[in-house]
Structure formats: C-alpha cells, structure tokens
Task: structure prediction
Amino acid sequence: MKSLKIRDGIDTTGAINIQVLDKDGKVVYVWEDHNLIVEEGKTTIANILLGLSTESVGFISVGDDVTMEVDSNRYSVIKATAGRVLAEIPVTKVLIPATFLGAPNQDTLATPPVAKFTATIEEDELNGASLGEVMLVFNSKARMLSRKSLGSAITKAAGFKIQIVWFIVISS
Result:
C-alpha cells in the first residue's frame, strides 16, 4: 500500500503544556512550548483522511533524550534505542470542533478544529526518572505524530504528579 503525504492546503501544528502538581494538586512548575508535526505524523494523517489507515493517537510517550541525540522522526527508531523511551502513557482525548462565521454552512473558518490529548504520570510512577522529551504516539505504538525536547530534564519526584496536555490544531 502506498503512503501519501500532505502537501499544500492543510497546516497542522501543536502546543504542549506540562504541569508538575504537588500532593494537594497545586501547580508548582509549568513548561509550555509549540512544536511541529513530524513527517511520519503528516503521512499518517494523510492516510487517515484517505481511508488508508485506521490509526488514532493513543499515547504520550516520555523519554530521557533532552538533546534529541537519537536524531530521528521515526518512533520505531527512537523506541529501539535502549533506555530512550521511559513510558507510554494512555491519553484521554477531547475534540473541539471548528466554528464558522456567518450563516450555517458558510465556509469562513472562525476557529480551526483542535484535538486535546492529556496524559498523567501519577505520584507513584517513574519516581527518580529524568524526563527530557515527549512524543505524541499513535495507537499502534509504531508511529508518532509529534516529538519535542524539553530543553532541560524534569526529574520526577515521589508525591508529585506530572500532567502533559498536547494540543493539535488543523487549519488551512
């Protein structure tokens, strides 16, 4: 089966919000940034739109590679590198539909559709681990949509939760 890539017309971008929460749920640290969609993700989105794939995003993967030493946009390559993927955390999904200006059925887009993916590392999970990168991964765990280095590691401590929220915006 031939894979297709999105070319002109559809722009897909992401934004990430990571919060560290103490045992009372108080936010003690926030990290935010924007990111792009990797080629593997664009190809998978095109295949989904064309009915060639039934993939959907299912996991946020966390790794220790702050410097993105494993220079690859292919999740299978990163995952095959010993110790780079620390956990694959199932996501909850919220889809926020597009809104349009004017009368019903007009095609003037007011706000683009947004997909929101949330994963939580609980208080008793990954304690002592250094989280250096995050990846948005499809259900098959063979491909990723997006990847982002945190720039400096977040060390996961006992008694703290880490909540990762990833927004994907599709616009034209």
Observations:
- The longest strand covers residues 144-155.
- The chain has one domain: 13-171.
- The mean pLDDT is 83.
